[in-house]
Known about the structure:
alpha/beta, eight-stranded mixed sheet, two-stranded parallel sheet, 34% helix
Amino acid sequence: MSPVKIAFVASGGAARGLAHLGVLKACEELGLIPEMFVGTSAGAIVGAMYGQDIPLDVLIDGYRLPWRRRHQGPRLHMSTFLGAPTAEELLDPGHLASGVFSIRKLEAYLRQHLPINDFRQFPKPVYVTAVDIDSGERTVFGPGVNEHVPVSEAVAASCCVPGLFRPIQIGGRYYVDGEVARTLSADLAVEAGANVVIISNIYRPQRDRGSKRSLAQRGIHRVLRQSLSTLLTEKESRGVEVLRHRYPDVTFIDIAPDLGPYGYFNTFSARPVVLRGYGTALRALASAKENRVFDRILPNLESSPGLTPAALRGGLRSVG
């Protein structure tokens, strides 16, 4: 018999990933504090910051209007990501041509501003995923697996959208966005001992059936965003369905807020995006709490301090 152990698993989504902060706000208000974090891309940024006990209000404060800010915490904007080529990239023409921007600018920002840049020193387990571009396999960074890699480098690798950014080199290997392999990596949370997994997924397609004007009439960016959201939502839902069958004693709470027209690069809409994440999560988590999901004692699971050997099979690589 094992007590309830909550994990927070977050998808990517660029600026739309701010909805994860709203989901965490709902968790805090209901007294549901995750004991571990798994994140990819935007979810990796949130996990790496909140997982080392940076207060949620400090993270949200970075997107408030300048005259309303109360803290001196990290403030990630588009300019934080779009870096010029490094000297190493300039000396490698093939690598230089593999993307438009360098993700090293984000890595340098995180290295400077993260209070803790070592997975082994985090107060709670945090796992970040990326993809080895040469093998196509998922790579995990966190306690017990590639834990020697600085958090800033692991998160930058997880955010390295192919084509937009050049693959980042870590230990002689090149990495891109973890969502290339999986939208979510909730299996890592289960293998690390979680028996209640709160999933924050921002890829819900916009539902606009009642509109007189089709999305096809609103420009290529709306069509591409809707298509990407539909693709990744289907991928995520199938993945969660597989996990529910594989781990019948684990409860998965899938929170997918409807973010409507707000785009992936629109940080000016932080407030409504956070509020939509908060509202959706509050309803889902309050319902789960009423059903005593977080009070149950679940069988057949043993708490684990880190990833088990089973999690290290099926595509996890070590970084040299």
